[in-house]
Request: fold
Amino acid sequence: MDEPDSTKKLIEKSHGSLKSAFTLEKGADLAIQDLLSAIYHTYGYDFRGYSEAHIKRRIMNRMTMSGIKNISALQTKVLNEKPFASILLQDLSINVTEMFRDPGFYRSLREKIIPILKTYPFLKIWHAGCSTGEEAYSMAIVLEEEGLADRTTIYATDFNQHVLNKAKEGIFSNRLIKEYTANYQLSGGKESFSDYYTSDDHNVIMNQSLKRKIVWANHNLVTDSVFAEVNLILCRNVLIYFDRKLQNNVQRLFHSSLMNGGILCLGTKESLRFTDFHDAYTVLDDKQRIFKKKY
Amino acid sequence: MPYEAIVIGVSSGGLNAMKILFSLLPADFSMPIIVVQHVGARSENVWIQLLNNHCKVEIKEADEKEKIEKGKIYVAPPNYHLLIEKNKTFSLTVDERVNYARPSIDVLFETASEAYQTHLIGVVLTGANNDGSNGIKCIKERGGLTIVQQPDTAESSYMPASAIATSKPDYILPLEEIIKLLIEIDISKEKSK
Reply:
């Protein structure tokens, strides 16, 4: 075993042999930028403002799984094989979600946001980046329990048609229900969670009455513009994947989509701190990252 | 100078190990330390406050897009992967678990080694799974310095033993020696400025 004395030797350890590795890495970064550009121009999906470390990890994973040797080979495959492009698109989009994810947030929704929403005769809620829809269904359940379902429309959007189709079906795997039920109870749920779905051996199907409240639509936060004026926007754990510039663009979109006094809900680790809109909101719940647009 | 940051991966038995490690750091320790500790998804990271009382260097949860600064210890938030960007800022993701873990040590180590290349020190401590093994191999391959806790001195020997098996680390040491080594590297780095 080495003694700490030899630290110096280690510190002076050869840098020469590593230069080539570094150059290679730089080449890979440029190749990824090229690839993202090509994907945008061919398919219209723009990942150029995403976190580089995230994109690189996902691309490297795909290359390992599909046995692709380098990024230029990947690019050729993406541009020439539509089914493969669709696979990579799934890899690069964010599809991890849960019902009543972060129960503390849904508790705060009931306690701090619902009383404000109750003052409006009609409500529009925008769930941006809804993925497979678990959180949109969670919202529909809360609205039903709070007596707001009849006057509300939830617009749940994502740029990924594949996940939207799944969301629309409202069919979820049975094995997750135990966790979702726990989340629901922790979030201050008032009924029995099993009242909201019917189940068979493998899956649960969400009730038709919940589905009726949700309008599913394809909308891309990166490339599309405002589509409605709404009372409440939920966009949780989407913006963490974006770089600062793109975060700022999306916050501009949210700000112009919200009516005055409207409410913005971000993920529990997301903030407005690095955007131009930090002062455009008051804080309703700091821990759960709930903001109210100033008048 | 070569080393600019330290990444540490730790799992079961981690609280005691970090208490020993961080309480021995001098107030002027300059290299930022970035930690993934495996915790439950609903943990509130209360232990960060507890450790702060035992430690002269500030310990905080890493915020997304936060710039990594000298003289601070950053900890991955529960239920998020912690990634380091080339511009030395943090990214968080809620991607699938890696090695059954979120945050995963491999995710931090792999992205950190890309961002810091040869200028990174990776440390694997006590734990009961094999998260961190690929990550430390990555750091080694990119020319960073690799340190693993001597398995028979760890509360859980599995994770350090697995890291040793995959990466042939530069050092295999008990906790007290690891911290001595890190302090020595930090001092020699500051002197040579």
Observations:
- Chain A touches chain B at residues 1-2, 4, 7-8, 10-11, 13-15, 17-18, 21-22, 25, 29, 51-54, 56-58, 94, 96, 237, 240-241, 244, 247, 267, 269-271, 273-274 (CB under 8 Å).
- Chain A is about 45% helix and 20% strand.
- The two ends of chain A are 66 Å apart (CA to CA).
